[in-house]
């Protein structure tokens, strides 16, 4: 995430907007205090979902599954339908410090990879610490079990 003071942002607005159009975020500072965040508008529909997932993959936040482990077509259709239904309510969590603290706690109490704990931590922040208000989607059995123990309703492996 780039940071810019108001005067610098004003004088270089085109450059910062190009960064945002490319999927980046700009934190706007007034006397070194954050006052706003410039970020891309969410795209709509399946194309927007694909673009957002591709950006997350480029950032190394998600990865594609192994080619030899295809999921059942019925299960994939169900998950895709749930994903597209949830798309309009989709939001990205950018509170990295809070997510990290949740992930540290989660990884110490559940047998998970750090990336899976970060996913659950981000979901807790998105749910505003009320996990019963969001559905958690995963194909990973360990992550599903941990998310359920954290209070989420899980759409997943079974």
What sort of overall outline do the alpha carbons produce when their principal axes are compared?
Answer: globular
Placed side by side, the strands forming the largest sheet appear as 1-2-3
Determine the mean pLDDT.
82
**Could you tell me the radius of gyration in angstroms?**
18 Å
Low-confidence stretches: none
Query: Biggest sheet, in brief?
Result: 3 strands, mixed
Number of strands: 5
Our measurement of the CA-to-CA distance between the termini, rounded to an integer number of angstroms, reads 37 Å
Number of helices: 7
Instruction: Label the structural class.
Output: alpha/beta
Please indicate the percent range of residues in DSSP E strands (runs of 2 or more). Answer: 5-15%
Which series of helices and strands comes N to C?
EHHEEHHHHEHE
Helix content: 40-55%
Give a concise summary.
The protein has helices spanning 6-11, 13-21, 45-58, 73-86, 96-109, 114-126, 141-149, and strands spanning 2-5, 26-30, 33-38, 135-137, 153-155. By secondary structure, it is α/β, with parallel strands linked by helices. It has a three-stranded mixed beta sheet.
Defining key terms:
158 residues; 3-stranded mixed sheet; two-stranded parallel ribbon
What does the model show?
The chain is an alpha/beta fold and 158 residues long. Among the domains are: 2-38; 91-155, no CATH class. It is 50% helix and 13% strand. It has a three-stranded mixed β-sheet with strand order 1-2-3. A two-stranded parallel sheet has the order 4-5. Helix 5 (96-109) crosses helix 6. The longest helix is centred in the N-terminal third of the chain and has 14 residues, at 45-58. It is globular and about 55 Å long. The model has no long low-confidence stretch (mean pLDDT 82).
């Amino acid at each position: 995430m780039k940071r810019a003071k108001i005067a610098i942002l004003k004088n270089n607005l085109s450059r910062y907007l190009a960064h945002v159009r490319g999927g980046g975020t700009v934190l706007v500072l007034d006397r070194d205090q954050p006052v706003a965040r410039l970020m891309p508008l969410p795209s709509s529909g399946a194309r927007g979902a694909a673009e957002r997932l591709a950006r997350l993959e480029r950032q190394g936040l998600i990865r594609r599954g192994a080619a030899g482990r295809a999921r059942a077509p019925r299960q994939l259709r169900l998950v895709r339908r749930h994903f597209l239904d949830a798309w309009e309510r989709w939001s990205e969590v950018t509170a990295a410090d809070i997510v990290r603290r949740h992930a540290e706690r989660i990884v110490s109490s559940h047998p998970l990879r750090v990336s899976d704990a970060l996913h659950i931590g981000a979901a807790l922040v998105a749910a505003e610490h009320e996990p019963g208000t969001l559905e958690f989607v995963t194909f990973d059995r360990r992550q599903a079990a941990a998310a359920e123990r954290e209070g989420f309703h899980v759409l997943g492996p079974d």
